[in-house]
Amino acid sequence: MGFANSAQFFLLIDGFLKSGHSNFSFFPEMKSSILAVLLTAIAVNGRYVLQCWEGNNYSGSSVRLIANSNDLADYNFDNRAASCCFRGVWVLFDVVNYNKGEWQSPMHLGWGDNYCVTLPRSIRWRASSARLVGDGGNYLRDSLSVYQGEFFMGHEAVYTRSSSYPLFKFAKSAVITGCSSWTLYERGNFGGRAVCAHPSDSISCKPGFFPMKRDFGPIRRIGSVRKGCYAKTALTASDTFNAVKSPRFISYTGNFTFSP
After folding, report:
1. pTM
2. Domain 43-239 maps to which CATH number in 2.30.130.40, 2.60.20.10, 2.80.10.50, 2.60.40.10?
């Protein structure tokens, strides 16, 4: 049996829970949470969606994003997100415009297929902008995203193929999606010192995160990028999480430390 859209599925489940055939009929607060998670779990048309609620445990009013938002006030959701479900790779920022110019402000990155969590205190009820990472948000599709600031802040450039002259050369953080590795060069036209950056897992295609400039190893800037590995020096994204219990969720609290 198929459903024309998520609203049709929502009405079916809601009717079932109201019918009395479900054990959840005696727990209305639990029922509302189940409905919210179910609705998120069937992201419209398979899109990569971020849905956040103003209450803990996916309760209260919510916002649904399918693309970047440089100001959540446009959705009447500034400083309101307390819990979220992630489909794809998303970053929440404390300040509008992805913390541009406010480099010490908190951020939170989450990824997965409908992976839901109550946000940590550092960003709960503080998020003012949100960004979808990668090529259309599909973390199984090959892409390299580089950012103006550390911890994926500021301007963004996304590459799906080699580029001899990137949009900007002073990237301080990066995210790799898909299974392919990328070579980062200090100079344009694939010149100068180079490092090979790998995803976290090239078999399961888990995204790889390089949240700080020091994670780029010996190169001081990115002058060009090439899909594939063409350098002797290798960087593995999982190495940047050696002190983190879970790589799915990162919080930056302003002092260059992570909290799971």
Report:
1. 0.77
2. 2.60.20.10
